[in-house]
Amino acid sequence: MSTKQYNDIIVEITGQVGTIKLNRPHALNSFGGKLLQETIDAVRDLNEHPDTVFTVLTGQGRYFSAGADIRGGTLVNFGPFANDTEAKLAFSTQLFPGVELVRSIIEHKKVLVVALNGPAVGGGAAWFLGLADIIFAVESSFLQVPFSALGLVPENGSIRNFAQSMGVHRANDFLMFGRKLTAQELEQWGLVNRILPAAGFHEGVEAFLQEQLRVNDGRSMMLAKQLQNAPLRAERLLALYDAADALAERFVDGTPLRRLAMKGAELEAKSKKPSHL
Fold first, then answer.
1. What does the radius of gyration of the chain's CA atoms come to, in whole angstroms?
2. Does a structural domain hold residue 3?
3. Sheet strands side by side (includes 111-116)
4. Record's Pfam families (predicted)?
5. Helix (H/G/I), strand (E/B), else coil: 39
6. How many CB atoms within 10 Å of residue 102?
């Protein structure tokens, strides 16, 4: 068990398996509150843990993560600014926690396992899976990103990371056009390793990893990850910072703010609509 107490994540250590569980189920594990900061801290801690081999990233509740907390309005109500330079610096600062989280994952020494306990949308779909070493998914999970619809760009190097695992054209279909991808499609395309039933999903992931630790040497598995990822490190870091720069420029342009404000208003109106049940 972890000795640290967090507000928006749960960290558990069972033998050689460390698990980070996104824990804002009331908000579909969106990136509000202290979720990003706490996840960075947990990734850093597990990276230096003397015993763990696997780091599992998963979610609490019915969603893995819905990405940005649009209802929180953090970026929608940002500004005003004296000039474009001031705006870009402010937006870059606002975006930095996501950049630092992805950088920490790129540098992570342990075998990174993403366990998709449910749908993943936006940053929840884009940031982690292209960098994961192993991916499990519940049968009903799916990925979808509305980046182009919101006037954004594929975030945090995701366009290159997904291209490395599923190919350029499929990555473009997913990240440029916003195609919704089911767990079954992701398995066929080689992104998801195994689809597991919803009942007992987390226990199934844990059992699989414990079996690997029984039959395989932990250090050998970590070295295999290192050898796999070492040639990709520089490209992934460059893609991360290129994407952050492009995203900040989009916010300076103003298009994402207008589109995010419209989306936030739509969600608010839906939440106030009376039920006919």
1. 19
2. no
3. 9-14, 17-22, 54-59, 111-116, 134-138, 194-196
4. ECH_1
5. helix
6. 28
162 three-class SS? helix
Q: Is the dihedral of CA 93, 31, 57, 11 positive or negative?
A: positive
Q: What is the CATH number of the domain that holds 124?
A: 3.90.226.10
Q: Is 172 within a domain?
A: yes
Q: Is residue 141 part of a domain?
A: yes
Write out the E strands in 127-240: 134-138, 142-144, 181-182, 194-196
Domain extent, residue 29, equals 9-200+213-272
Q: Are 57 and 38 in contact (CB under 8 A)?
A: no
Question: Tens digits of per-residue pLDDT, 9-59?
Answer: 999 999 999 999 999 999 999 999 999 999 999 999 999 999 999 999 999
Residue 80, amino acid: P
Cis preceding linkage at 231, omega within 30: no
- Smallest Cα–Cα separation from 185: which of 163, 204, 166, 203? 166
**Token code pair at residue 136:** 């499990």
CB 152 within 8 A of CB 122: no
Locus of tokens 């900061």 = 37
Map tokens 């075998």 to a residue.
Answer: 111
Number of other residues whose CB lies within 10 A of the CB of residue 59: 27
Provide the domain count of the chain: 1
Q: Look up the pTM and report it.
A: 0.92
